[in-house]
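W.,

You were right to be curious about this one. When I first looked at the sequence I had no strong expectations either way, so I just let the prediction run and decided to look at it fresh. Below is the sequence, 247 residues in total, followed by the output.
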Amino acid sequence: MEGDCLSCMKYLMFLFNFFIFLGGACLLGVGIWVIVDPTGIREIVAANPLLFTGAYIILAMGAVLFLLGFLGCCGAIRENKRLLLFFFMFILLIFLAELSTAILAFIFRQNLTREFFTKDLKKHYLRNNNTDVFSSTWNSVMITFACCGVNGPEDFEAVPHLPRSPLESTIPEACCQRELQSWEGVFVNREACLTGVERFQNRQGCYTVILNSFETYVYLAGALAIGVLAIELFAMIFAMCLFRGIQ
């Protein structure tokens, strides 16, 4: 009976580690996608040092979970006590780190509000100055997502009016409609846009556009994180039970 129980525990341990392996692969894929994606996510991440750091943390955690899931599967099948103990200690450290990260993300979530981005834009944005990292990043976001400012073109009324051509209105040319949403895209009508003709301008704010674009992914990422934490917890329990059962 004890042998059957140990055998059952071994295969349950293998199963949970297989899910950890898959979870690590998913996190690894998400981290790589966020860092190298050419469609605009990279610009959003680069605009905020906290998000930029978070992307690399996700990448590192994915790689570690990927490796530990593989080691856990090997430890369970081969019934190696040292490998199981090594697996348990590292999973525990990762579990605590992920839990701490989730708590910090919840505490500092107010840094990602509409008001925060609006204040930051009005304070640091230098219109068409693409030598400035903050301004060029915002221009890239507005062009990629066909949006203007955080709330809309009215955000730029409070931005200092740096030297510009006589035709330019208060909005930057990054808010002008293009046939293709990229830096190489041809303007629909640049002159009309800059002189204030609204139908040639992108009038919707970037906050709403981006929030709508990634709302599904945010919930998916949250559900994935909860799932990974639950799987890690069960894997630690099974690892310790299997460790104690091996003679």
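Here's what jumped out at me. The chain has a mean pLDDT of 76. And, maybe more interesting for your project: The two ends are 15 Å apart (CA to CA).

Coffee later to discuss?

I.
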